[in-house]
Design goal:
208 residues; seven-stranded mixed β-sheet; 5 helices; 33% helix; globular; binds guanosine-5'-diphosphate; YihA family ribosome biogenesis GTP-binding protein
Length: 208
């Protein structure tokens, strides 16, 4: 997979610093601790491309990873690791900064081809997850939900979580512009489940 050649490109702290790139990008959002960095690393078959940050103050940045040829003579697109959200004790100013950075990026970034939202399979669709969906829905672009840490659920519980997530996305679909695909799958970095289907979604969005 071309994703295996992803490499660090840049870090952005303010919208004005977003790179003026001309190829598609896919963004990864999720509550802090949802397993986002682990999943990005697994999808790219790398040990430490994405870093999990345990410090709320340090999470207010956006990391870009470039997907290109090994020879670095062509860039297909970018993977964009968005700041994790949902820390209990983020000060008001940091929260406001987060909302602007994430909300504006998601709602207005023309290059953004699709949004992956990582949600812990045991407690998906928290208020902030729904906020992300609602910011992005009006763009009419696709959302793919990864129900992470699926290994923590029995197969019955997994099936139930998947059904419930589909029901919620179906309800959102009624509000979305025509045709916006809202999809969901189970995922486990630990058990390496769901990696290929997720890679296929990313490849499709990036035109790989
Ligand atoms: P992030 O804050 O969303 O980037 O989350 P991390 O990727 O840092 O993961 C948070 C915690 O969840 C870490 O302790 C990981 O080891 C654990 N974790 C990540 N993926 C999985 C998974 O698929 N299964 C299980 N059981 N734990 C996971």
């Amino acid at each position: 997979s071309l994703l295996h050649q992803a490499r660090f490109f840049t870090t952005v702290n303010h919208l004005r610093d977003l790179p003026a790139t001309a190829v598609p990008e896919v963004a990864f959002a999720g509550r802090s601790n949802a397993g986002k960095s682990t999943a990005i690393n697994i999808l790219c078959n790398q040990k430490r491309l994405a870093f999990s940050s345990k410090t709320p103050g340090r999470t207010q940045h956006i990391n870009f990873f470039e997907v290109g040829t090994a020879k670095r003579d062509h860039t297909y697109g970018y993977l964009v690791d968005l700041p994790g959200y949902g820390y209990a004790e983020v000060p008001g100013a940091a929260k406001a900064h987060w909302e602007r950075l994430l909300g504006d990026y998601i709602a207005t970034r023309a290059q953004l081809a699709g949004l992956v939202i990582m949600m812990d399979a045991r407690r998906p669709f928290t208020d902030l997850d729904c906020q992300m969906v609602e910011w992005f829905l009006p763009t009419g672009k696709p959302i793919h939900v990864l129900l992470t840490k699926a290994d923590k659920l029995s197969s019955n519980e997994s099936a139930q979580a998947l059904r419930e997530a589909r029901r919620i996305l179906d309800a959102y679909r009624q509000q979305a512009p025509d045709g916006a695909p809202l999809t969901v799958q189970l995922f486990s970095s630990l058990k390496r489940k769901g990696i290929e289907p997720a890679q296929q979604v990313l490849a499709g969005w990036l035109g790989l």
